[in-house]
Design a protein that fits this description.
mainly alpha, two-stranded antiparallel ribbon
């Protein structure tokens, strides 16, 4: 067994903390999937308040400080992604609240002792990311295949240059690990190969994938937290209007005063919270995904 998977002290109130995290994440995932990716504010703020209350109810000064530090780091990084239009605001709050509820996992509910020294939210993100990537590939592969069969995809030098560099970098990486004196476990190679293949696919067809998610929306129908496809707009006009990807009340007011009738908006962006729910449930029940890879 690798030494990094050393036991950690048991978290007080872990069962109730886990139940609260699952319940709130489940509710948020429902709204994310079936309410046009809009999660009510009362739900995300309620989750955050409940997470703080649980830390007070099962107060442990060292654990509370650790939970606050982890949650602050998670919120800081995810909020930047939110402002860049790469992550929903609710996603940032749910990830932060999970970090407060369960800062680390002392022991999964359906597996043996396998605690890890890093924050629990990192364990959650591994199965979450895997499920998200699998669904994205399944979603876009048929779409891209149809466009290729119709001759609607042009493989020019500009399009293939980046993916080819990725391919060369990965080939060099595989060669480098093949000459190491200690063989890398096949599980790691398989995971890395899958991640690279996904990255190569999304890099090669990023424009087609973006186009499939963009819709010209009347300015009168814009809502707060819509994400503009600025690359589809006139760059000088977007700069003049001071637009950023994530729009709020001020940006909507500016657009309504402009002469624009419709603007490109990412209306088909994939939801995230249902995958986070799967990752959370898996990690609570079975522990860290990397732990199973490290055992082989």
């Amino acid at each position: 067994m690798l030494e990094i998977f050393s036991p950690q002290p048991e978290i007080p109130g872990l069962a109730l903390r886990s139940l609260a995290a699952l319940a709130f994440t489940c509710a948020a995932a429902y709204f994310d999937a079936f309410n046009k990716k809009w999660v009510p504010n009362y739900l995300v703020y309620g989750f955050l308040g409940c997470a703080l209350a649980l830390n007070v109810l099962f107060f442990d000064s060292a654990l509370f400080i650790q939970a606050l530090v982890i949650a602050a780091a998670v919120f800081g990084s995810t909020y930047l992604l939110y402002k860049a239009g790469q992550l929903g605001g609710a996603d940032a709050y749910v990830l932060t609240s999970i970090s407060l509820c369960v800062p680390y996992l002392s022991k999964p509910f359906l597996a043996g002792e396998q605690s890890v020294p890093y924050p629990f939210i990192l364990s959650v993100l591994a199965p979450t990311g895997l499920a998200f990537i699998l669904h994205m590939v399944a979603r876009f592969l048929p779409y891209i295949s149809r466009k290729i069969s119709k001759g609607e995809v042009r493989f020019g030098l500009t399009k293939i240059a980046g993916p080819l560099l990725l391919l060369l970098a990965f080939a060099f990486f595989i060669y480098s690990i093949s000459i190491l004196p200690v063989a890398l476990p096949i599980q790691y190679v398989a995971i890395l190969s899958f991640l690279f293949a996904s990255l190569f696919f999304f890099s090669l067809f990023k424009e087609e994938i973006k186009d499939s998610m963009v819709e010209m929306v009347p300015v009168s129908r814009l809502q707060e937290e819509d994400v503009l496809a600025l690359e589809k707009m006139d760059k000088h006009l977007a700069k003049k209007l001071g637009l950023s990807p994530l729009i709020g009340k001020a940006a909507i007011a500016i657009l309504k005063k402009s002469k624009l009738k419709r603007v490109p908006v990412y209306t088909g962006m994939p939801f995230f919270l249902p995958y986070l729910l799967l990752g959370l449930a898996f990690s609570l029940l079975f522990g860290d995904l990397l732990y199973y890879l490290a055992r082989f």
